[in-house]
Amino acid sequence: MRRKHGFWIGFVSVFRGLGVTLLNLVGRRKVTVQYPLERPKVSPRYRGLFYLPFDEEAGRLKCVGCTLCAQACPTKVISMKKLGSGKHAGVSEFTMDLGRCMFCNLCIEACPFDAIHMGPEYELASYNRNASVFTIVDLAPGGAEAVRRNNATIEAAIKAENEAGGSERKGHSAEVKLVVPPKTGGQEA
Amino acid sequence: MAAANMTAGQDRRAVAAGQITAGVILLAALLALASVGYHVVERVRDTPVVAFIGEHPLLNAFAKSFIVANFVTLHVLFLIWWERKFAGWMQARLGPKHVGWNGLAQTVADAVKLLLKEDIIPAKADGRLFVIAPFLVFMPTLLTFMVLPFSASWVGYNFGLGALFALAVSTNVSLGILAAGWGANNKYSLLGGARACAQVLAYEVPLAITVLAVVAVSGTVSLVDIGAQQSRWWNIVAHAPVMIPAFVLFLICALAELNRTPFDLPEAESELVSGFHTEYSGMRFAFFYLAEFANNFFMAGLAVTLFFGGWFGPLLPGPVWFTIKTVVLVTAMMWIRWTVPRFRVDQMMGFCWKVLVPASLVVFCASALWGIWVQR
Asked: Cβ contact (<8 Å) for A30 and B8?
């Protein structure tokens, strides 16, 4: 009796299977993306290439150079050079060696200023290890022009503060290197 | 984002519609071309040169085998493309896409690649067996087309015992497969070859009996005569009560004969690497592949001749109808192939001897009685 039952299950399941494959054949959208010819639209949360948001109102990058992201990074991807201090702190250099990056998102979670993000760009492979090192010029959305404006804004602000506040906050240096990761082997992109 | 997705979807749909239209137009053009070709050939038949070739026994044989071999090979190229495309669609993929229209020339590119590859014979292989095995597989496959009627007059040799000849010759494929498995000096190959031999010989029994069932109903063993009897009604319609079960049995046995899933034990990838052709590469591998699909084409052709009215059909000439019907049947076999998982060896043998052989004997007796009753 049980064997008979099993026979019918097997018999019916063959036709069910044929139905499933038929439905796939005619009724389902093909999932293939023909990559070099057409590119997938990634989701807004996609973890691609990093960027440093530029604050248009303030005329500078949002980053204040606090190094929280660099400290949160498990693989020591991030190194930066701080520019200024206190209210007008920023960065003049911000280098990420994506050869070591595992796109874990920890740096972004660590940032209290929303000053580092991941974008939609995913074609990061290169023929050269040095090409996976991204400098601030590559990471800032406006490129070299944005970095120039950032530096100019911060330096002007520091200068203004020094002239106004005078002696009591004297002596702080404009540039302090805070985190020095192991050698990255060059910085040309 | 949503809007962008929607336009992308519409684009895709438009592209798909364009592709389908192009496909239909191409198919229609192909059919028209084939029909025109058929009529041209029918005209040319009476010219002195062709008549001379037809009367000369050696030239006749050579010309016919040349035509058949070339047609089968080209058709197989198409079938391989179609199988890959079909499998792709069933798995929500696109299949070959780049070489030619929708990858139509992909098989040609693959064949050229295989031809250019290094010819490797393993150091410890039995050289002679290893070398001739692909041809031992390919030759009987091609030989079976000799008796397959593409129409009443388009047949290599109108042989009185056509059905038996076809069965007898197609069994010899297992010899080549065993030679390949033995000659490669590889455990996987040997297992695959042994399995193929056992399987093909076992399933030959119910296959032959189901063919005999058709013979019992038609009263002739000649494939041309069996086909010619179906000018009004296909066998499977005219003798439905016995021919439908006979066709089901035939289809199962044919799948086993062809070593196609669910009976692809001889080349079971997950168990035997790729079975009897594990050690083969390049040109020799291409021959195995070619033989497999040519065999598939032949089995479908045999089924069409026995059950589906052979070359008869409206409008289009006989050979074209025959080819269309075989392609439909081959597609059905592909459908089964890409759906059903593989049997276990003991299940496969048990199914043959315990289920198929008795069932085919019952069908044979029933159709013999039916034949007597119909003829009254």
From this structure: no
Whether the bond between A36 and the residue before it is cis, its omega within 30 degrees of 0, is: no
| B92 to A24: CB separation less than 8 angstroms, yes or no | yes
Start-to-end CA distance of chain B, whole Å, equals 74
Q: CB contact, 8 Å: B4 with chain A? A: yes
Residues of B whose CB is below 8 A from A20: 339
CA distances from B97 to A34, B19, B90, B107, B286 (A): 9, 12, 15, 11, 21
| Chain B residue with minimum CA distance to A19 | B339
Instruction: Give the residue carrying structure tokens 């035997």.
Output: B272
Out of 3.40.630.10, 3.40.50.150, 3.40.50.12280, 3.30.70.3270, the CATH code matching A50-177 is 3.30.70.3270
The single-letter code of the amino acid at B94 is L
Alpha carbons B255 and B266: distance in angstroms, whole number: 13
What is the Cα–Cα distance from B370 to B364, expressed in whole angstroms? 10
pLDDT in tens, B16-49: 777 788 888 888 888 888 888 888 877 777 777 7
Residue B330's closest CA among B294, B289, B296? B296
Q: B13 vs chain A: nearest CA distance in angstroms? A: 10
What single letter denotes the amino acid at residue A42?
V
Number of residue pairs across A and B with CB atoms under 8 Å?
39
Bridge partner residues of A94 (DSSP): A80
Q: Averaged over B3-11, what is the pLDDT? A: 54
- Please give, rounded to a whole number of angstroms, the shortest distance from the CA of B351 to a CA of chain A: 12
With a CB cutoff of 8 Å and minimum separation 6, the contacts of B303 are B247, B250, B251, B254, B329
| CA–CA distance, B255 with B200 (Å, rounded to integer) | 10
Q: How far apart are the first and last CA of chain A?
A: 73
Query: For chain A, what is the radius of gyration of the CA atoms?
Result: 26
Q: Which amino acid is at B79?
A: L
Instruction: Give the pTM.
Output: 0.77
Nearest to B340 among A17, A25, A44 (CB): A17
Contact A115, A53 (CB under 8 A): yes
How confident is residue B200, by pLDDT bands cut at 50, 70 and 90? confident
In this complex, do A44 and B92 lie within 8 Å of one another by their Cβ atoms? no
* Closest Cβ opposite residue A41 in set B4, B336, B339: B4
Report the distance separating Cα A83 and Cα A79, nearest Å: 13
Nearest by CB to A30, from B1, B93, B335: name it: B93
